[in-house]
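Can anyone check this?
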Amino acid sequence: LLQKFFKKRKIEGRILRMLDSGEGFQGSIWSASNQTDVWNRTVGSKDHQWFWPEKDSYDAAILRLPKSKRELEMCVHIAFSSLRAECPLWVYGSNDEGIKSSEKVLWPLAKTVTTVAYGGRCRVLQAMASSEFSYKNELSDWKNVTRIDLPGFNRDWVSYPGVFADGKLDSGTEVLIKALPSIPDDSRVLDFACGTGLVGGAVQVQLKSGSVDFLDVDLIALAAVQQNIPGARVIPSDGFGRLEDERYDLIVSNPPYHQGKIWSEDFIMGMVTGAVAHLNQDGTLIFVAQRRLQIERLISAHFREIKVLSDQDSYRVWSAKL
């Protein structure tokens, strides 16, 4: 559907593709004279950490439908702020992802919203910015502050749209934090796939001379970490790729286990196997996962001492020691 739609459109100039992995754009469908920039809010090449699109710089924007309404709202504001006057925003996605209902989000923000292509249970919406609307074009416009109340850890916490568990304490993170054992004061700790940094923040409360690093692929999540924990060392990385030879006494994580709408153990498998190279001798990996995930054999293949620290509701907290 996307290939057919964009081949029929003669798009000239500079194009902004947002939250787009490229699955809908096989082959070259753009003019050779076009410049296409991809903004995924995630880690790019080592010399290009693209945090936020430029304002008033694009002739068209293409947005892959985000998962949450709040992230869709933020991305629409960013897109309209990034577009030159009278330039289109196209939003695409499947029916079961909510592309039809996304019109309700677009209409209050746009001058016009039109379905310009549909088929194969997918559709493309076109929206045009309203000159009468003042768009929120700074990250600070989207800050969400929530009160977190846990034993020994009570404070306000910053999050942003699209960051995991935006605006709330998710149950998996709560189970993990409550199950954490006593951690030696001088430990070097990594919060892997840290999100806003809640797990690492709870660990840091226990430490006196130790340290906590925060790793995530999402640059906006890491911006939240830096506001929640001033002075924190953040590591933009997709998995362990940018850690090089660094090692830790403890790695903690509430890892993702979805790829889009599909349950997947791939990320957890990568975390378990990769952690071995980044733990000190006798180092420990502690993480929470859904009970339905069959991962004990995987952990046992790489760690000598396996424990279940908590088995509550649909979650298990695993401790794996080298």
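Reply from J.R.: I decoded it. The mean pLDDT is 91.
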